[in-house]
Design a protein that fits this description.
Two copies of one chain form a homodimer. Helices cover 23% and strands 43% of the residues of chain A. By secondary structure, the first copy, chain A, is α+β, with helices and mostly antiparallel strands. In chain A, helix 2 runs antiparallel to helix 3. Chain A is globular. The termini of chain A are far apart. At the A-B interface, strand 1, strand 2, strand 3, strand 4 and strand 5 of A face strand 1, strand 2, strand 3, strand 4 and strand 5 of B. Chains A, B: Belongs to the prokaryotic AdoMetDC family. Type 1 subfamily. Chains A, B: Pathway: Amine and polyamine biosynthesis; S-adenosylmethioninamine biosynthesis; S-adenosylmethioninamine from S-adenosyl-L-methionine: step 1/1.
């Protein structure tokens, strides 16, 4: 398997409190997001924190998707990392929409290319 | 909980084949790395691919650690993301050493700060 991958780091703000605090909703959303991007799901682990917040991961054959949600701040920190021909932005945008994010920033970082990666990063921001 | 976090993206090259292909060694290394950084381990999931390669995650109270290894390329793609006062570079360096990486690049990206993050990223490369 080739090492090259695309890693989308997404900062999702102004999300809906109830969605950010619903571990079942988030797990379903993440599995759906992986499938929509064409990934093969291998492992699914989500954890609900007290009093609020969810962390979780979907390990896919092509790398992973993760989330850490902070309902009290309307914020979710997500990563979508894919190898091969998949497009991680499909999953990241699906998740942003599902969580009702009103402001998001997505940064794409190439992985497994050899040289330092940050110079190649692409930033997109929209409100 | 505050949203601010530190996310280290590490590209580890010239690692030892046998270590990159040993799911039990990698799992133990990642749990130890999390503990050395002072994290609280919540979930541990590692997956061995055929014919080779390991993917896995340690979810910590303070975010996560992940790996995707490509033994045939001597390459491991790792992420160490921590919130709070933890220093993710402690875990990332521990992992790089454990895998016998001869060349690594680590990029730190601030998370949960609000504005676009890439301009703040710090790159360190060493051979």
């Amino acid at each position: 398997m080739e090492t090259m991958g695309r890693h989308v780091i997404a900062e999702l703000w102004e999300c809906e409190f109830d969605k950010l605090n619903d571990v079942n909703f988030i797990e379903r959303t993440f599995v759906d997001a992986a499938l929509k991007a064409g990934a093969e799901v291998r492992e699914v682990v989500f954890h609900k924190f007290a009093p609020q917040g969810v962390s979780g991961v979907v390990i896919i054959s092509e790398s992973h998707l993760t989330i850490h949600s902070f309902p009290e701040h309307g914020y979710a920190s997500i990563d979508v990392y894919t190898c091969g021909d998949l497009d991680p932005t499909i999953a990241a945008k699906y998740i942003a929409d599902a969580l009702g994010s009103q402001t998001s920033e997505m940064t794409e970082i190439p992985r497994g290319m050899g040289p330092v990666t940050v110079g190649k990063a692409r930033v997109t921001a929209h409100a």
